[in-house]
Amino acid sequence: MKETIKNLRQHPLVKKHNDKIKFVLVGGFNTVLDFCIFGTLANIFKLPIIVSNIISTTICTAISFLLNYKYVWRTKKSKRETAPGFLAVSLFTAWVVQNIAINSVVFLFGDGAIAKLAGKAFGSACGMVSNYLGYKIVFRGKSGRITLRRHDEEPKQSS
């Protein structure tokens, strides 16, 4: 089993997309935790969905920062330097994008438990792309410009 994992890590496709794979793993863990907290608060404790979402995403944002900082991006920037940008991206996604998505699904399909969780799933899917791009800028980018080149490639010199 160890040998299989070692070989998998050396595969060119895995090496090329290492940060994306780690991002998906950390994001998957955080999404499951977020769903559990949100579902408990909204469906068992009957808190309003916006309050439930704000509480669940706030807890998961703190956990996500630590995991992204140490495991996914392994940045040379300090926590103090990256935390404000990370929080801005995360909280915008969690509190604005997800709440719009959740409330849209609930508006369209009713106020049931399944509609609330479906809305949360839709919001999580919408937020995944914006979080990835935003975190990439926060942890690796030198400017607000989004580029498609890999972080370990040298920028092309203009003539």
Largest sheet: none
| Radius of gyration of CA atoms, rounded to a whole number | 18 Å
- Identify the overall geometry: globular
Mean pLDDT: 85
State the domain count: 1
Distance between the termini: 49 Å
Uncertain stretches: 143-151
Compressed to H and E, one letter per element, the order equals HHHHHH
Question: Which percent band covers the strand fraction?
Answer: under 5%
Q: How many strand elements? A: 0
Number of helices: 6
> What structural category arises from helix and sheet content?
mainly alpha
Proportion of residues in helical segments: over 70%
Overview in brief:
This protein has helices at 2-10, 12-16, 18-44, 49-72, 79-109, 113-139. It contains six helices and no strands.
Walkthrough of the structure:
By secondary structure, the protein is mainly α. The chain is built from six helices and no strands. The longest helix has 31 residues, at 79-109. The chain starts with a helix and ends in a 20-residue tail after the last helix.
